[in-house]
Amino acid sequence: MSKRKAPKSEKNEDIVEALIELAEYEKNVERNRFKEKAYRKAATIIAGLDKRIKSGDDAKALPGVGDKIAKKIDEILETGKLRKLENIRADDKSTAINLLTRVSGIGPAKAKELVDAGIINLDDLEKHKDKLNHAQLIGLKHFHDFEVKIPREEVKELFESVKKVADSIDEEYMMEVCGSFRRGAKFSGDVDILLCHSEFKHSDKHHGDLLHRLIKKLTEKELVTDKISEGDTKFMGVAKLPKHKHFRRLDVRLLPVDEYYCGLLYFTGSNIFNTEMRAHAHQKRFILNEHSLRPLECGKPGAPLPVSSEQDIFEYLDYPYKKPEDRD
Ligand code: 8GT
Ligand code: MN
Ligand code: MN
Prior knowledge:
Number of helices: 16
Bound molecules: 8-OXO-guanosine-5'-triphosphate, manganese (II) ion
Number of strands: 10
CATH class of the largest domain: Mainly Alpha
Number of domains: 3
Strand order of the largest sheet: 2-4-7-6-5
Distance between the termini: 15 Å
Strand content: 5-15%
CATH superfamily of the largest domain: DNA polymerase beta, N-terminal domain-like
Helix content: 40-55%
């Protein structure tokens, strides 16, 4: 979820990795989302290059690379390392905060609170479970499994199993895997399933128990093993296939059928792509979110536009279509 990484660049791996480490530091320790985004954006752009960067100046020609990042790139190129990162790595408090935020459910603020209380590693956490909430306890229990990426084949198997269970309850369920899987990733951090039902429309106030019924059955079948949170439209939990070793994070999102494509677009990501597309929508005087695309009329959102494919959304916005695989 929060541990997103830019795709690997063969040519600039050292630079990309340093920038991602700096982004993590800004997010977890400094809690500076602005700097975090700047590093992440630069990392993503550099990761997409198929040539080795020769100098900071070279990099500055790229969108999203400013003076400060360019200087760091020069230092990496000249010395093979970055003092700022060496210092961060040598700092016990930063290291501890970074480690604790790797527990699913523990954010930067909670991590700092724990470290300030002297809790600096997993053993300490085990001894102070009283300080953790339900979601964080699950994160701790599955700490190692949640760091193991899920091979595409296993995502497919898990999805097929979930689908089978859904079909056995009601054949009108429809579902699709979104997230990094839909973007073509060979490995995913979790399994994101978008769920619809032909009779559940936005205008219906009552989606009944559509999501709960599915989760209940999945739990009975022991496919779902833990619940992190469960609302009427959003489930976050843990799933495991009998023949596989690892427990996996599973997200299921229930959407009305008439919101399907906006939901599909949103839930597919990437996060950065979504942010950019929304910003573009704003420039074109539209509001795009996970539910709908609405024109802005005198600053107020109008009625949702009819959308019957992802392409429709791109067309309304006059935004060049990108296949899911190109949305990283
Ligand atoms: P992954 O392989 O690490 O799971 O990569 P991912 O599939 O791209 O990330 P994700 O965190 O599973 O998010 C998938 C999409 O779900 C994102 O594009 C984002 O728009 C959407 N999303 C939600 N809820 C949340 C949330 O609570 N946090 C984040 N980061 N994204 C969310 O629907
Ligand atoms: Mn995902
Ligand atoms: Mn997810």
